[in-house]
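Worked example

This section walks through a single chain of length 198. The input is the sequence exactly as stored; nothing has been trimmed or padded.
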Amino acid sequence: MSFINYNAKEIHCKIVYYGPSLGGKTTNIQWVYQKTAQQNQSGGKMLEIGTNNERTLFFDFLPLFVGDIRGFKTRFHLYTVPGQVVYDASRKLILKGLDGVIFVADSQVERMEENQVSLKNLETNLRQQGYNISEIPLIMQYNKRDLPRVSSVPEMRSQLNKYNSPDFEAIASQGIGVFESLKAVSKLIITILKGGET
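Given that input, the structure is written out below as tokens.
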């Protein structure tokens, strides 16, 4: 849940990128970092925690597109989780205190089962921490749309988007759909912080 720093007059929100291994979670955060670090002096550092086969990234920044909430600026902390199941303990730890999730699905036909397993794992880990996935800001991102053998968007929706979350097609390596996904989850979080007012 959001943390309020009264001295700095900032509200800190945590967004977690979740999804199967090598689906594009890290690419999303790297794109956001590269595009915001140059224009945003109050942007944070990107930290990488490496394991043998996976990377977990953390990056915080003060976005340019979100206004104040009752005089407080909103700072977003972006996290990726390791995609491989062996790192499930790390995933659970990273989910603690989250405000929103961007589920990055790999659009390749042969990766559908991995997407479904990862989504089920997200549901389980959230439930174990007292979250209801249908009540948290959740965005579905269908990544790697530029590859030759991809599932259609209606197929991706029917297989993965059972919560009818906002969804976006993406090619994260080119920045397509990256900021759209981030802005959408940010708006949902801000709406909750404002108490539902529009």
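What to look for: Residues 112-128 form the longest helix (17 residues).
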